[in-house]
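Worked Example 4.2. Consider the chain below.
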Amino acid sequence: MNIAVVLVNYNGLSDTLDCIGSLGDSAIPLKIIVIDNASKNDETDFIRDKYPDVKTFRLEQNLGFAGGNNVGIKWALENDYDYIALLNNDTVIDSKLFENLLAEANGYTVVAPYMYYHGSPKDLWYGGGNLNRWTGNAKHIYTFSEKPFECTLVTGCCFMAHRSIWEKVGMLDDSYFMYNEDADYSIRLMQNGIRLKVVPQAKLWHKVGKSSGGETSPFSCYYITRNRLHLLKTYRNFFKLTAYPFTILTRYLWILRMLKAGKKNSAKAFMQGIKDFKKGLMGKIDFSGNL
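Applying the procedure from the previous section yields the following structure tokens:
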């Protein structure tokens, strides 16, 4: 079985090189694909010089997380790879990660590893995920288990699927640009009868939040808000009637929390996310945070 691993790089050369280095220690061979998502400086030349076996693509515009990954997924499918994995570039893997994932993967099961904080290596960042149909919350869970188990949310930070699954379900929805495309994909997987399984023996360490500036940066607040509302609308038959009002209420509570903390731009980003959802605006929205 041959495996392709897709990394999206955006002004993150140091992290990407660390990630590639850890992939080079994998217990099984991997084809690494790096998509440079229109970084300020073209970083593909440096990657090719240091790692000539890595397949690189330089994009002229930032296509977002989903759009960048889709370029790599498409190439891997066209080149007949059996399994295609998505992996954040700000991660470092255990050498047996893909060996352990492969042991549980098949044509009807998507697999994801345990993911730990890079700065706190024994603390779980992702130990499975849950999509709450009543609230719309997409949350990581911290199930400590020695055996693989099923869940309802795989994170785009890392999951692997057989090519037949990618062909059946399709690629990521690039209209999200950033955030919630993994929740969208998890729902599509389940709707197509695909199981989502977490493999505790497979491990990686994640430098959380580096590319977006953190979970309460204006960038994150905007896209998480707009895209979550879009997710609820798109899959209204999946979620319960309570999910939309719950989400709107909690966004306004977050706005108050950000104002109290002196984070006015983050508060404005929450509000702008709600407004743009109501306008039907999707894709990349350019803003500096001074909304």
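Residues 218-279 form one domain. The CA atoms of residues 27 and 280 lie 46 Å apart. Compare this with Example 4.1 before moving on.
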